[in-house]
Specification:
Blueprint (H helix, E strand, L loop, with lengths): L7 H21 L5 E2 L7 H13 L4 E8 L7 H9 L5 H12 L12 H13 L7 E4 L2 E6 L2 H16 L4 E2 L5 E3 L13
Parallel strand pairs: 1-3
Antiparallel strand pairs: 2-4, 2-5, 2-6, 3-4
Length: about 190
């Protein structure tokens, strides 16, 4: 997998861009059930939300990890994601210049990759209304009462991913019966 190793100047620019745009995206683009790569949200936040659903009786879980979320994105597409929430043409031109300087816009190692991953997955998130979902980074968990409902949620999330050229990681995605919150959102889980 290609990885960027930004220079000090690149890191400063990436941080400045992120500091400028992150509050706008937090307010307009990201669902309240999304944790990971966000200010004051982490695995613990996701686990608390998941535990709430589990304690409410939604014990079956469609657990879906997105495969290759950092691949297959062009600069124009990434700028378009930002343009849905940011309407300042000067900022968008600067962003285009910054992203064009990377091997690919969502290349791991860049200071913008975490923000871009969330922004890419927000395209999936918008298609999941009606589901009880918690997402941590690129891992979706939909909570249901029955295995059949979890299988339907799995299909719904898979279809939402396909609509934006993503797919579940077959090795990490499954329907869980009687899930335990601590077993969710694990690396290589």
């Amino acid at each position: 997998m290609p990885t960027a190793i930004p220079t000090v100047v690149d890191r400063l620019i990436h941080r400045a861009v992120r500091n400028a745009v992150e509050p706008v995206l937090e307010a307009r683009a990201f669902a309240c059930w999304v944790s990971g790569y966000r200010p004051r949200r982490n695995r613990n936040t996701a686990l608390r939300q998941a535990a709430g659903f589990l304690s409410d009786g939604y014990r079956c879980v469609a657990d879906i990890d997105a495969a290759r979320v950092s691949e297959g994105v062009g600069v124009d597409e990434a700028v378009d994601w930002f343009a849905e929430c940011v309407h300042d043409g000067t900022f968008l031109r600067l962003l285009r210049t910054v992203l064009a300087g990377l091997p690919s816009p969502v290349v791991p190692g860049s200071g913008l990759a975490p923000l871009l991953i969330n922004l890419r997955l927000s395209q999936v998130d918008r298609r999941l209304s009606g589901l009880r979902v918690v997402r941590f980074a690129d891992n979706y968990c939909a909570f249901t009462e029955t295995v059949a409902d979890a299988e339907e949620a799995f299909r719904c999330i898979s279809d939402a991913m396909a609509a934006v050229r993503l797919e579940p990681n077959a090795a990490k995605s499954r329907v869980r019966r009687q899930a335990n919150a601590e077993d969710l959102f694990l690396i290589d889980g």
